[in-house]
C-alpha cells in the first residue's frame, strides 16, 4: 500500500514548481547586475538557457539550523577565487553559482553550514547594523520587485565592496553606489570562531 507521504513526494517531484521559479528568475537575472545591464532585462535582451545543473531535491531543504563556526578569511578567499564563473540559477558549484549558493559554498569551506536560499540565510543569521560590516558578512538586496525581498545576496569584503554571483561572479562596489544602496535590504553575520 502506498503511503500518503509517497504520494506527496511523487506529486511534488513531477510538478512544475521548479520550472515556474526557474523561468521567473531567468526573466530577471540581468537586474542583479544593475547599471551594468544597461537597463535591460534578459527578456528584452537574451534569456540564458535553462541550466543543465539545476536539480530540485528534498535533500537541499533547510532544517532551520546554522551549524559551526568559521573563519571569514577562508570564506572570502573562496568566494574571490570563484570570480569569472557564470551565474547559473539553481547551481550549487563548482562550475557556476547563483547568489545564495556562492555564500553557502564559501562558508561551507570555512566550516559553517548555511541554508540554501537567500530568504533562509537572512532569517537564520543575526542581523547587524550597516556600520558594523566586516569581511565575511552577508549583504542582502531586493533585485526583483515581483518577489518578496531579499532576492540577492553578496559577501562583504571590505572597502565598501562585495563579492557576489553577478554574471559572472565578481567584485562590486556597493557602499556609495546609488544603485546598490537603493535596493539594500539588510546585513547579517555568520558565526565565526
TrEMBL record:
Keyword NADP attached: no
GO molecular function: cysteine-type peptidase activity
Gene3D superfamilies linked: endopeptidase domain like (from Nostoc punctiforme) (3.90.1720.10)
Signal peptide: 1-18
Highest taxon of source: Bacteria
Keyword Calcium: no
GO terms, biological process: proteolysis
Family in the record: Belongs to the peptidase C40 family.
The protein's name in its UniProt record: Cell wall-associated NlpC family hydrolase
Organism: Streptomonospora nanhaiensis
